[in-house]
């Protein structure tokens, strides 16, 4: 049974940016890739995935285009914009710093004086 | 990326459909999930159920996505429009740069039209529209005594009449009187050596609540200030405070010397404040406590405010009732007198001037229309030359709307450039007007280029841009692309184009003709006005207004001595041919009048004795002003009770006055022939002259006979 970690709205946007930085992807593939990459640790909710995609598109961080999917269906593909790539870099940086800081605290071995 | 299918591209040709896109996107996701679950062995319905369960509330998601999509479409449309505008503007500027001659002429033409309109609008706004600095200024009225039989419409009011009026007109919530402004000498503390001339006006303290204007600093005058024995208090105008006292915050409470007497400044009035009817920089309290109860002693000016809901007609009816009663009670002084009233806004501007401004607005609107027609014509001519370019655009898929828009953008950009130039012209024009119209334009200090004027300029530029741009743009966009391209190098617009341009030329010529006729008439009146015989020759004459303080020169003898010395000194200056003094120079300030009687022709009972304009002069006045002496001699310093009369005075002299030497031109009448004697002593005339001077229009100056006579100098009030 996969662990379903709840995560913040900001986090899913960062994950989307990272995912579509590989190549143009439709929503389903984005959700699948995140789930596969985290070994099913993170399961992306459709209810938050699609609004997040549209929000990112409004902000101009990703852009969309209709195309044909691998099984020959019409699907909306998302790609990263230049602005999106810049944001991804900056956000990844601050996320890693944040995660490292949290890690330091929860793995601390020295008790408070 | 996988390619977009043809049918979708086709469908999206008519614009985005956010709702449908969202539905299809979500349907695709659901289908993919169902397919995946089916692969694990679930039945179709099980798979669909699991998928929907995992999806949660589909409606919510769909709604949120749709809202976001619609917002995106809006953003994109705005961005597209911005891009198109920027592109059009850039193209317009490039076109202007390539056609410098056209651009310069068109922009200059429009700049003149827009500039004239902006300048005149700021005058019209400043003079007619800008609110007066009083609370509810429309409820303010100015009151006068009126004597229709003597053609005195706007005569001053006697304190006795005023007191009776005050109680008798319930249509007014308040009524206050004030004195005519007069010159005074101001000495600032710490600057004893430099007295300055200022204008002061004695006003009843009630005038301030009546006008509804509070003090800017300190307080206004209060009823207590007008009590006998109260410490002398004054309020000063903002302009005086800023020009003479450097906006010194400590002025309130300080003592100044006004005409040699100490007064205390109790307040500073706000910028733009004045009492309608007396332009003054210092207001002193006026008390009617000791005023004469003679109803004929008319020297006050009166303002009133309507009680809420009362009208001019009601006030008139009540005023007529009280003047009828006064005429009954005091037939000797009030018999033919009634009350005249005029709303303050109307009084400040004047009907004539309002009409003049409106005519001017019409004239500059014509100028703008001519400029627009001219520019439209230029645009049409240019559009003919650009036909190939436009046809090419159309052939490449530009819609008619797009081409119209582009040409209109060009016109608006041109109007924008012209508006910039027009604004510069307007600023220059207003500066010129300030110099020329100082004495003829009311409220000129309120005329300036400010937010309303700028808004007006923008509106005019926009309107005229559309006006001169729309027709050429529509015509150009309608032209048949194929025909134009086929016609190749031909640059005529064809018969239809010629028709439009001819119509424009006709409109232009007729508008110009109207303006030319108007300008011609104006010029003729001006030339005639210039040719009016003044009766004196002002060439080479300098006028220096002088004023002596009553404290330093208390009597006629000391005043005479002073002027004698001044005249002596000035006469000795190199280049001075002659010098004289007069109590009031022609067209400069007040127009003193004098009531007189002719001894052997008593005034019939019930009739007023005649009056005449009247000047006090020193010997040499006639020579200085080059007034021809028709008969007799000039006055001499040694003369006592001698008069010079003008030609127009002849009819009032007795026919059979053998001793009277009645000539054409100016006359001398020696004392033994004392045909004419003042009804009151001259010094009285001067002291009460405020009451004599309200009728100082140019009209009365020309109608009334004039007298000159030396009487020894008294202070010209």
How would you sum up this structure, described in words?
The complex is a heterodimer of chains A (113) and B (717). Chain A is of the alpha+beta class and 113 residues long. Chain A has helices spanning 9-20, 27-37, 46-58, 82-106, and strands at 25-26, 62-68, 74-80. In chain A, strands 1-3-2 form a three-stranded antiparallel sheet. In chain A, a hairpin with a 5-residue loop joins strand 2 and strand 3. In chain A, helix 1 (9-20) packs across helix 3. The longest helix of chain A has 25 residues, at 82-106. Chain A starts with 8 loop residues before the first helix and ends in a 7-residue tail after the last helix. By secondary structure, chain B is of the alpha+beta class. Chain B folds into four domains: 16-89, no CATH class; 100-129 and 351-530, no CATH class; 137-349, no CATH class; 556-708, no CATH class. Chain B contains 22 helices and 18 strands. Chain B has helices at residues 6-11, 18-39, 44-55, 58-98, 100-129, 159-168, 207-211, 238-244, 312-329, 331-334, 344-349, 351-385, 387-395, 400-436, 451-478, 481-487, 494-531, 556-571, 621-625, 682-687, 689-692, 698-703, and strands spanning 140-147, 152-155, 172-178, 182-187, 196-203, 217-218, 233-236, 255-258, 261-268, 282-285, 301-306, 337-343, 593-597, 611-615, 643-645, 667-669, 677-678, 706-708. In chain B, strand 4 (182-187) and strand 5 form a beta hairpin. In chain B, helix 5 runs antiparallel to helix 12, helix 5 (100-129) crosses helix 14 and helix 14 (400-436) packs antiparallel against helix 15 (451-478). The termini of chain B are far apart. The interface between A and B is medium-sized, with 27 and 30 residues.
Summarize the structure.
The complex is a heterodimer of chains A (113) and B (717). A 3-stranded antiparallel beta sheet of chain A has the order 1-3-2. Chain A has 113 residues and is α+β, with helices and mostly antiparallel strands.
